[in-house]
Batch of 4 targets.
Target 1
Amino acid sequence: MFGAGSVGCHLGGLLAAVCEVTLIGRPQAMEAVRERGLRLTGGGRADTRIAPALLRASSEPSAVAGADYVLVTVKSGATREAAAAIGPHLGTDAVVVSFQNGLRNPEVLRAALPPGAVVLTGMVPYNVVRTGSAAFHQGTAGALMVDDTPDAGALVAALRRAGLEAQPRADMGPVQYAKLLMNLNNAVNALSGLPLRDQLGARAYRRCLALCQEEALAAFRAAGVVPARLGPVPVSLTPRLLRLPDAVFRRVAAASLRVDGRARSSMWEDLERGRPTEVGSLQGEVVALAARHGLAAPVNARLVELVREAEAAGAGRARRWPGAELYAELRGAAGR
C-alpha cells in the first residue's frame, strides 16, 4: 500500500489476514502502526484489531521491492512523485493499481513508471476517516472496482477472501466519471463542516451538489462521455433527485442517507489536518473539461476558490458555510 493514509491503511489492514502486506506512508503514521497495529471499525464488520506483527510498515519507497501488487492511494497531486519514487524498485512482474480519486491518475502512473509497467484502474466507493493515530472507520458502503484483466485476478481473489466486495469491470473509464460525479460532494461536505449524513440530509447542501453535477453532466455530454450507472438512479436524474424537499428525499433516496454518523469526506479531513486537498482533481477537472469544449463551469470554479481559501486558513480554521449561504454563493457565481 503506497500512500497508506486512511484508505490505504483500511485496505491493507483487512488484506493482512489473507496475504503479506506492507504499508508505506508518513513516518509518524507508520511508527504508530509498528507500535500498535491497526484498529478498523465500521463497514458492517465487528471491531477489528490487526496486530503489529501482521504488518510491515515503512516510510521508504524501496519497501515496494518484491511486491506482486502495489496499491497506490496517494492524493492525486502526489501521483507523479509517487511513480518516480517507486519506479526504480518495482519488480518486472509487479502490478500497480490506482485506488485514487480523479480521472487521470492511471495515465499519470503509466507515463512516469518504467516502460512496460502494468497499471490498472481501481475505484474505492466508500468513505474512510482516521479516528486515531492507528484507527480508521469506514462510514459508507460499496464494492471496490478494478479493471477486468487477468492481471487483476489474484488481487480480486485476495480482496474477496479478506471480506471485501470486489468487482472486476470492463468499463472503468465510465466508472471513473460516475465516481467523479459522486466526489463533487467532497467540497460541499468539507465546507459545511458537517458529518456526511447531516449534510446530505439538508436540501440546501444537496442543491449545491446538484449545481455542480449539472455542470459536470453538460461537460460530459460535450465530450461524448457516458458515465456508468453505479446506483438505482440514472446519473442524468440525480440533480433532480437532490433538489427534492427533505421529507420526500428521505423517502425516495433512503440509501443515500444510509451513512454512518461519523462519516465525513476525505477533503474535510484534509482541511482539518492542514493538508492540500484534491479539489483540483475533482471540481477542477470539471472546469477544465468544460473549457475544452467551449463551456463554462462557474459553480465548480467557485468551489475550487472556496476550498483554496479554506486550505490557506490553516488546519481546522476553515470557514463553515451554512447551507443557505453556500447555495446563494454558488448561484451568484452562476449568475442565477
Note: The chain has a mean pLDDT of 95.
Target 2
Amino acid sequence: MRQELLSLPKGLAEEVSRNLVMVARLIDEDPEQAYAYSRIALRLASRVAAVREAAGFAAYATQKYSEALAEFRAAKRMTGSVELWPVMADCERGLGRPERALSMAGEPEVQKLDKAGQVEMRLVAAGARRDMGELDAAIVTLQSPELASNAVHPWTARLRYAYADALLAAGREDEAREWFAKTLEADKDGATDASDRLAEIDGVEFVDAAVLDEDEDADVDDLGDEDDEDEDAAEVAAAERAADQTEYYDEDDEEYEPVDGPDADVDLTDEIVVVEYEDREARDKA
C-alpha cells in the first residue's frame, strides 16, 4: 500500500493514509464510521487499488454488498490479484445469489489462491449450500484435509466451527459437540463462541452476575420491608394491649391508679394469675 500511495503528491498521500488508518482501526468496532472514512479516501484517491480495497471492506462490513462487490472488482482489475475472490463470492451470497457464489467456487481463480484463500473459498461455498437448503452438501463441502488435520492455522477454528454448526443444523448433535470442542482447542483468541455453543448443547445456563446482584439487592429490600412490617405489627399489638387495659379500668374509680415510671412495663396478666392462685389456696384451706 505504501508503494501505491507514493504515486500521489506528498500532502495528498498523507491525507489518504490518515483516512485508511482510521478505516482499519474502526472497521470492527464502528463499521459505519469506518465506512465514512473510506468514502473520504475514495474521493481523494479513487485510482489507488488499496483505497478501492479498503472501501470494499468497509462497505462489506456495513452489509452494502453491491457497493463492496464493485470496489473489489475495481481493485482486482487494478492489481490482477485473485486474493479477493472469496470475499467477492461472499458478496454474491449477501446479494441473495448463492448459485453465483457456487459458480465462482469452481472458477480457475480458486486454484491461484493460497491455502488460506482456498479454505475461505470452501467456507463461502458451504455457506452458499446452506443458503440453498442443502445441509448435507454443505457438510461434504467442508470435509477436507484441512479439516482433518491436527495442525492449527489461523483459519482452523473457523473451519471447524462452520463444520460443527452445519452438523448441528443437520441434527447430528453428538458429532457437532465433538467438533465444537475441537474448535475450542484451536480458538486461542476467542474468535468464535464455541464455548457457548458447547454449553448450550450440554444444557448449561449461564447467569449474568449483574442480574444476580440485582436479585440480591431486591432480596435485601424485601427483607427490609418485612422488618418494617414486623415493627409495625408489634407497634399495633402494643397499642391494642394498651387500649384493652384502658377499657378494663375505669379512670373514675377511686382505686384506679395508673402505673407510671419503671413499673409501666409490668405484665398485668401475671398479677391477675397470682391473685387467682392465692384466692384458690385460701378456699382450699377453709
Note: The two ends are 123 Å apart (CA to CA).
Target 3
Amino acid sequence: MSKRKYKISVIQLNLNDVAENNLKKCISWVRDAASQGAEVILLPELYSSHYFCQSEDVDNFALAEPLYSTSFIAFSELAKELGVVIIVPFFEKRMAGIYHNSAYIIDADGTEAGLYRKMHIPDDPHFYEKFYFTPGDLGFQAIETKKGTVGTLICWDQWYPEAARITALKGAEVLFYPTAIGWHPKEKEQYGENQYGAWMNVMKGHAVANGVFVAAANRIGLEKYIDGTEGIQFWGASFIAGPQGEILAQASHDKEEILIAEVDLDLQENVRQNWPFFRDRRIDAFGDITKRAIDK
C-alpha cells in the first residue's frame, strides 16, 4: 500500500559512453539521489549506451542484454542495499530477432516489481527505433511497489494521452517517463523552442487530465558518432510536475542533475475531488478511439 507521501527523483545524465562506464556512473548517481531522500528513482531511456538509434546498423544489437542479466543484477543489489525503488530503462534481447526498449521496476527489496516494454515505437530521422525494437506486448501497467503505485511509459509513449489515461485509470499515482529526446542541431534555431515546449506541454497535460504526478528523465549532451551527420543534441530539461501540471522541479538543458519532489496523495485526492475528470468521462461515447481512423 502506498504511503501518503513519498519522494521521487529523476536523474539527468550524459550517457555517451560505453556500457561499463554508464553503469558505474548511474549507480553513483542513484546513490546520491537516495542519500538526498529519494525513494523512487528514475534513470533516462536506454541508460547503458549512447543513443544508437541514429542509424540502422545490425552491429548495435550487440548492445542488448537478456532479461535479468547485467542491469538487473546490479540495480537489484543496489535497490536492496539502499531500500529504494529504481526504474531502469534498458535494451532487452528477448530472443534472436526480437528486441525491446524496456524498463525494470525494481522494488526496494531488490525484487522485480514489474517490467514495461515500450508500446509506441518512432521512426524519424536519427530516431530509427523501428529497426531495433519490437512494440511492447505487456500493455500499460500500474505497478505496486513498497513506496507507491507507479506507471512507467517510455519516451515516444509520452505523446499519447491514451497511454497516460489507461495507466492512471489502473491506479498509477506517478507516470514516469524515461526519455531520450533532443534537437537536430541544424533545426534548433528555427524549431527548437516549439519542439521543447510541445514536449513539456503534452506531459503537463497528462498530469492535469489524469490528476497524477509526472516525472521525465532526459539525457543531455551532443551525441555525434556517425560521420557526415550533426548528431543529436539532447535537451535535458528533465522535470517533475504535480497533478495540476505545476512544475515541482526542473533541470537545465545542459547539466547533469538530480531532481527530487514529494508525491502527496492527499493533494492528489483533493485535486481529483475538485476537478473530477474521471467521474465525468463519457465512456459510452468513446468507442471510436480504438479505430485507426474514423472514416466518413
Note: The helical segments are 19-35, 70-82, 161-169, 185-210, 265-274.
Target 4
Amino acid sequence: MTEAAARRAPGTPCWVSLMVHGMAATQEFYAALFGWEFRPGPQQLGPYVRALLDGHEVAGIGQMPPDRHLPVAWTPYLASDDVDATSESIRHCGGTVGVGPIDAGEAGRMAIASDPAGAVFGIWQAAEHLGMALTGVPGAPAWNELVTQETASVAKFYEVTFGYEEEAVVSADFDYLTLHLNGSPVASVHGVGQALPRDRGAHWMTYFEVADVDESVSLVEELGGHVLKPARDGSQGRLATVADPEGAVFTLVRSAPREEDERP
C-alpha cells in the first residue's frame, strides 16, 4: 500500500529509526538491500539521515553517541498530538521516558520511551515531518510487532497510553493480540514466554516488505548480515528474521494478499 504522508491518528506507528556506530557502512548495507537513498535529517541528537525509496521517506538512521552504550535496534515511533502529555501518561502507567521530549528542529517533537517490560519505542509529534510516506511496498516498513513475555499486562499499558482496542487470537497455546485504532489494525503484541531472547528482552520488531524473501535473505548474508530465523511461511505471508552487520534485528516479509486486495 502506498500512501501520501499525512498526519496520523495518535498511536499509529508513523516512523522507524535506527541508531548505529558506523553510519556509512550501515547506509551501504540498506541501500544494497532495499534500494534506499539518503538525505540529511535533523541533527539534534547527532548525525542523522532519512532513507528514501523512490523519493519517498521511509526510515531514519542516526549516529549512536560515543558515550551511549545502547543496543543497536530498529525503533518504531508512535504518533502523538502532544508528546509531553504522552510522556506523562507513560510515566504514570509504569513506563520510562529515556530521551526528551525534545524538538527535532522544524520537523517535530519527539521522545524515546520504554514500556513496563523494557521494550523501547519512540513518540513523534509531527510538525513539518509527518513520517513514512510509503508503507507495505518492497523496501518500506510493513508492520510493527511487540515481542514480549506475555501480552496481558503490557497490552494494558499501550491501551491506556494510546487508546488502542485489542483483538486477541483465541488459542490455548498462542499468546497474540492485535492493537486497533478506529477499527483498523496498526500493530501486534506477541507473548513468547520463556522463548524471549535473554540478550534482548522485550522489544519491538519492524517488518520490511520485500518482493522475494529468499532472495533478500541471500542478499543479507552476502552483505555481511546474519540470518536468525530462516525463511518460512506464516499467516502473514513468507518471512525471515535477520540482523544487519551491527546486529539490528528485523523481519523480511512478503505479505500474504489481504482479502480486500483479492476482490475483483
Note: Residues 144 and 206 are 5 Å apart (CA to CA).
